[in-house]
């Protein structure tokens, strides 16, 4: 099974992802591994955009893939399997927030503890991620992270977040501008 | 860093940050939930089997043919507005299933269970709910009735009956929508495409007819359009892919300068069969209603007031309907009068007068600036009450030399140089810098994807500098 890890880096289209879900529905763990390799970033990114905490996002991402395994036999192909996967992740993230009772802001201490152990994250990536998690409002962060990692179109992101497309677009553009201003050093997000 | 680079960095940051937990996940993979089994797949205890076989045989012998007719799908009817519904009916026009094909349709159906009803009852119920939900009010909205049936005679009859029935229902409800109808025979390819896009087979058939006019368009892009847009696109010969209602609404809001305003609603009417093809967008804001015409293919705003929150340099602030709401606040003109009154001056006594409306913590404020002899005045005027919030005056060694042109003249000089008219631009901002060695106006605006910054000599109208850049 593990020979697949790292090799399945090619972008999957909806048809390929649906084929993977079909195999998962039949109990194929290799297919789950392939799906995980493909969608891990998107699911983790979505969870992080809601939870702003690396540990919680990690938990929710794991729960999401376990839930996908359990629910795959119930999935009916609709042309947008990533939206289905990310809806599961979103619901689990919202459930986690409800359990916590509040949305926690990322303090400097949290950020440091969140400081990603992976040495693969470069200093620049760390800086951009930190800016995204601390300077953007909730919807801006969700729209931008989803667009960056999920491959969903703005229309699909708007549907997933249950907001009008125009809001998704304006949050996306405004949020990116905020990030650029912040990162380019004029200090005004 | 460009926005694309920023996104790419975020992408790689998340990919690198996401821990690899595959082993933990696989170790938790236990039993899977099972899809509801079809009746034939259900496990039954053996002792019921002979009874079942006997019962089935009896049914086949006694009423086999009629049972088959009663439960077999004879026709598939779809109704598309933007909510899309699919009704599968038997040859006796009994509804065997009624599906909402998208979220809008689910909301319209609510908890109505139309299975088992006659087709006419079901269609009336759906039309009634569509009207109630405001879908068929507009004169330009359209409902598409599609009948998919391999029996072409029956398809034609159903098409005529349904068209007449829907027409009566719309008239009774005083709804203005137009009715389109079509029939076609079963097409597996079309059904697959429809299913993949969560649209009805009827809408898929309409899209196919548009693709026949222009094969460079894509099925997926067209599926996102409403029936009304598709119908108009077909009539116009499908010259390209329209931007869609949401993008049109966004373009109008951006042009109006109200993207920052959260309490805003809009209505968009496509006019793709007119020349130029456009979307009519009405924005409803707390300041009034504003109407825009947005090019259907380029997204360029062809008409409507820009910068409705601002009023500097003559940018129009007049709502097109002339119906500002009671909470709309004072006009730029009133703010100017309030500032002049506070200074004890009249407009004819001052020079380089500029008025700029802006939002500060959600409150409308006007910045009014002018010169009187060698004194420069700046006021902040409350946009609701017209009271002076802040007043500053600065005495300079001398008055700006010579006669100064008005800020509108500076704006016009910049527009003439850029080859644009007032209706082409947005986000206009004019500031007077009259205490410099050469008094000047700074004129900034955006048009399309470009932003412009001019420095105009306030005495001569001469252009001192021009900067032009991509608006990012």
Portion of residues in beta strands of chain B equals: 25-35%
What CATH calls the topology of chain A is Rna Polymerase Sigma Factor, Chain: A
Number of helices of chain B: 13
Percentage of residues in DSSP E strands of chain A: under 5%
Biggest interface pair, residues each? A-B, 61 and 45 residues
Tally of distinct domains of chain A: 1
Describe the largest sheet of chain B. Answer: 5 strands, mixed
**CATH superfamily of chain A, called what?**
RNA polymerase sigma factor, region 2, helix turn helix motif
The H-and-E topology of chain B, N to C, reads as HHHEEEHHEHEHHHHHEEEEHEEEEHEEEE
- Protein structure class of chain A: mainly alpha
The CATH class of chain A turns out to be Mainly Alpha
Q: Shape of chain A from CA axes?
A: globular
Mean pLDDT of chain B: 78
What is the end-to-end distance of chain A?
45 Å
User: Can you tell me the residue ranges of chain A where pLDDT is under 50 for at least 5 consecutive residues?
Assistant: 1-10
Features:
heterodimer, A: 189 residues, mainly alpha, Rna Polymerase Sigma Factor, Chain: A, 9 helices, B: 472 residues, alpha+beta, Nuclear Transport Factor 2, Chain: A, five-stranded mixed sheet, four-stranded antiparallel sheet, 13 helices, 33% helix
Short structural summary:
With 189 residues, chain A is mostly helical. Chain A has helices at residues 14-25, 29-51, 54-71, 81-100, 108-114, 123-135, 138-150, 154-161, 165-183.
């Amino acid at each position: 099974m593990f020979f697949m890890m790292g090799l399945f880096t090619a972008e999957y289209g909806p048809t390929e992802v649906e084929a993977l879900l079909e195999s998962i529905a039949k109990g194929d763990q290799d297919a789950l591994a392939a799906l995980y390799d493909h969608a891990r970033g998107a699911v983790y990114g979505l969870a992080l955009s809601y939870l702003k905490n690396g540990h919680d996002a990690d938990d929710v991402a794991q729960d999401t893939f376990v839930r996908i395994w359990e629910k795959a036999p119930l999935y009916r192909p609709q042309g947008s399997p990533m939206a289905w996967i990310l809806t599961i992740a979103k619901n689990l993230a919202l459930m986690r927030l409800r359990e916590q009772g509040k949305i926690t802001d990322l303090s400097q201490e949290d950020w440091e503890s969140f400081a990603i152990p992976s040495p693969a994250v470069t200093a620049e990536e760390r800086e951009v991620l930190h800016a995204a998690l601390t300077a953007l409002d909730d919807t801006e962060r969700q729209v931008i992270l989803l667009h960056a990692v999920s491959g969903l179109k703005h229309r699909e992101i708007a549907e997933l977040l249950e907001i009008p497309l125009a809001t998704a677009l304006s949050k996306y553009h405004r949020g990116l501008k905020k990030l650029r201003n912040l990162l380019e050093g004029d200090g005004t997000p | 860093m460009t926005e694309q680079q920023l996104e790419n960095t975020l992408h790689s940051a998340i990919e690198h940050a996401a821990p690899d937990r595959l082993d933990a996940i696989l170790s938790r993979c236990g039993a899977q939930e099972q899809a509801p089994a079809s009746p034939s797949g259900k496990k039954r205890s053996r002792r019921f089997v002979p009874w079942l076989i006997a019962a089935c045989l009896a049914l086949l012998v006694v009423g086999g043919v009629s049972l088959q007719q009663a439960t077999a799908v004879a026709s598939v009817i779809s109704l598309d507005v933007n909510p899309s519904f699919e009704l599968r009916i038997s040859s006796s026009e009994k509804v065997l299933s009624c599906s909402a094909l998208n979220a809008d349709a689910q909301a319209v159906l609510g908890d109505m269970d139309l299975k088992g009803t006659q087709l006419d009852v079901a269609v009336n119920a759906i039309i009634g709910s569509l009207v109630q939900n405001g879908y068929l009010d507009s004169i330009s909205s359209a409902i598409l009735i599609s009948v998919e049936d391999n029996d072409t005679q029956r398809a034609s009859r159903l098409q005529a009956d349904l068209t007449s029935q829907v027409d009566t229902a719309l008239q009774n409800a005083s709804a203005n929508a137009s009715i389109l109808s079509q029939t076609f025979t079963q097409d597996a390819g079309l059904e697959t495409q429809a299913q993949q896009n969560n649209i009805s087979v009827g809408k898929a058939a309409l899209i196919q007819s548009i693709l026949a006019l222009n094969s460079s368009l894509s099925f997926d892009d067209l599926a996102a359009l409403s029936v009304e847009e598709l119908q108009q696109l077909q009539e116009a010969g499908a010259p390209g892919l329209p931007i869609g209602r949401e993008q049109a609404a966004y373009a109008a809001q951006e042009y109006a300068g109200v993207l920052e305003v959260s309490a805003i609603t809009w209505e968009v009417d496509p006019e793709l069969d007119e020349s130029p093809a456009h979307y009519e967008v009405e924005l409803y804001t707390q300041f009034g209603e504003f109407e825009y015409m947005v090019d259907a293919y380029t997204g360029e705003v062809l008409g409507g007031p820009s910068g409705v929150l601002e009023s500097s340099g003559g940018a129009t602030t007049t709502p097109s309907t002339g119906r500002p709401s009671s909470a709309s606040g004072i006009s730029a003109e009133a703010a100017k009068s309030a500032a002049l009154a506070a200074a004890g001056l009249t407009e004819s006594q001052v020079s380089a007068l500029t008025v700029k409306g802006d939002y500060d913590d959600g409150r409308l404020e006007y910045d009014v600036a002018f010169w009187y002899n060698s004194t420069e005045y700046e006021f902040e005027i409350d946009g609701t009450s017209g009271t002076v919030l802040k007043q500053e005056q600065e005495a300079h060694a001398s008055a700006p030399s010579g006669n100064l042109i008005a800020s509108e003249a500076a704006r016009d000089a910049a527009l003439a140089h850029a080859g644009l008219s007032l209706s082409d631009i947005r986000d206009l901002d004019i500031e007077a810098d009259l205490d410099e060695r050469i008094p000047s106006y700074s004129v900034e605006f955006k048009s399309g994807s470009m932003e412009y910054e001019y420095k105009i000599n306030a005495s001569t109208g001469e252009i001192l500098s021009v900067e032009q850049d991509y608006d990012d």
